[in-house]
Amino acid sequence: MPSLSEKEYKNEFVATFPGDDSGNTKPRQTPGVLYSKAIPTPVKKPELLAWSEELAQELGIEKPTNQKDIDILGGNHVAPSMYPYAACYAGHQFGNWAGQLGDGRAITLGEWEAPSGKSWELQLKGAGLTPYSRRADGRAVLRSSVREYLMSEAMHFLGVPTTRALSLVSTGDKVLRDMFYNGNPAYEPGAIVMRVAPSLLRFGSFEMPAARRENENLQKLVDWTIDRYYPHLQGENRILAWFQEIMERTASLMVDWMRVGFVHGVMNTDNMSILGLTIDYGPFSFLDDYDPDFTPNTTDLPGRRYAFGKQASIAYWNLGCLASAIAPLLPGTEELVAILETYSDIFHEKYYRMMANKLGLDEVKEGDQELITRFTYTLSTLNLDMTIFFQLLIDLPQNLENEAETEAHFQDSFYRPLEKGERQTLHTLLTDYQTRLQANTSSREETVQMMQKANPRIILRNYLLHQAIEQLERGENTLFLKLQAAMKDPYSRNFDEFFAKRPDWASQKAGCSMLSCSS
Ligand code: AMP
Ligand code: MG
Which residues line ligand 1 (CB under 6 A)? Predict the structure, then answer.
């Protein structure tokens, strides 16, 4: 297997599209181009903190053993065949058109061809200034880099489509951040993640040439994306078929997020992958207690636009932006709009099927939608821990004698004592559920397997990440390594030391519940 410094890289994006090759990182608008050359700014002392061996195997990359390879991961060395660049894209942020954004602190080094023949974009996040850095520094702090590194790998092992993370490097430099946006900036250790995906193109990558009325660039980008990433779509109506597939992938992604209780926190159109991947890990969170109104992003208050329960409809809104961007390439908008209008049905069909799996129902029968809604309503009004509740549901005793027995069984998922009426609601729901289970044609064993596959046991809760980061900042990696191992096996009982609800102390602590975008 070649190492990072030995590899012959491809640069097909750069070779295909117009770019600004000046290498100048002065902040500016870059009309007419899809990327700008940007050489990573060297850091003081790059040290490898973490390496994803499974991903490295898949890509055929040898683990760095010499300083040259580590220097690539820290942005201190660029291999001869790499052409580092920052992509130019635009976006709608919090519902408003934000114009040009672009990779302000991410630099793609090149494309790595894996033994399978599949090509992967290798990108450093936090590698220094680019023309799109605006007034920021192009850097990332250890805190946000650990979160992206662990969480993107965790999502992969949960079976949720995502960008991946190959490495985590500390830079030896300090980075100034106002973590709480309260006028008290402080220095934090800097870090760089190498992010990896077949493509990091976003909805915003298409919105940019569309907004600039650069139809030729737009057409070329759409054609290239379809040929390279959706090659099964050919023929006259392929743009429509492509949009339909992006819509389906995006709907599936929303359903997967809802299955595991993931809240992205910043679903701007520049953070929506054209491949339907989870991308741009910022102030994300898993749900502890089930709350559809929960947003982990302090910048998202008070509107809660990106709350857990709104993600599916925000995805629809974002798909509308993508549709508007590609509309100039079509003779009319009628068909595009007709496809978009099917989103709700497609999403709901996938959603109820997923929820049926979580509950162990082998099909969605009449009355099941109502039962599913009763479950989510009960989870939210009783403030139950989502992950623990569904795990306990797998082990539900066959005959629930009375309310007290039901309460005792689900005790570990409570964040507060239940009132009398709530105990009754829960008990009635579960006895109705058990009656419904009798209509299953699959065996009890098959039902349990279905539920185990749909319901993770171990999730990377924010307070765990917070503790691991605090340790790492003190130079200790025990918890980090344990979490790294646990997240690879989230459906098993092998890491039950992390099978616990959020402790009381964490519920109001910054970084354990709410986070800011500052990273
Ligand atoms: P995000 O909220 O991470 O999706 O970022 C939104 C925009 O801000 C993107 O264009 C980022 O590249 C840019 N950005 C975020 N943080 C930084 C930073 N520290 N330096 C430069 N640009 C940044
Ligand atoms: Mg972003």
Answer: 101-105, 132-133, 136-139, 266, 270-271, 280, 282, 517
Tell me how far the alpha carbon of residue 372 is from its chain's centroid.
25
In the numeric block, which tokens belong to residue 248? 């389906």
For residue 137, the CA-to-ligand 1 centroid distance in Å is 9
Nearest-CA neighbor of 157 among 260, 227, 88?
260
| DSSP three-state, residue 229 | helix
Distance of alpha carbon 321 from alpha carbon 324, whole angstroms: 5
Please provide the distance, in angstroms rounded to a whole number, between the alpha carbons at the two ends of the chain: 34
Q: What is the pLDDT of residues 123-171, one digit of tens each?
A: 999 999 999 999 999 999 999 999 999 999 999 999 999 999 999 999 9
Cα separation of 460 and 484, whole Å? 10
Q: Atom 8 of ligand 1 has which residue's CA nearest to it?
A: 104
Residue of 127, 133, 121, 136 lying closest to 166 (CA atoms): 121
The neighbouring-strand residues paired with 20 are 36
Looking at ligand 1, which residue's alpha carbon is closest to its atom 15?
104
Q: Which residues are catalytic?
A: 270
Token pair recorded at residue 506: 């964490």
HEC per residue, 341-378: CCHHHHHHHHHHHHHHHHHCCCCCCCCHHHHHHHHHHH
The length of the chain is: 519
Q: Write the pLDDT tens digit of every residue in 162-204.
A: 999 999 999 999 999 988 788 889 999 999 999 999 999 999 9
Parallel/antiparallel/unpaired status of strands 140-141 and 96-100: unpaired
Q: Determine the Cα–Cα distance for residues 8 and 479; give it in Å rounded to an integer.
A: 37
What are the φ and ψ backbone dihedral angles of 327, each rounded to 5 degrees?
Answer: -55, -40
Residue 509 neighbours by CB distance under 10 Å: 13
Q: Please state the pTM of the whole predicted model.
A: 0.98
What three-state secondary structure class fits 88?
Answer: coil
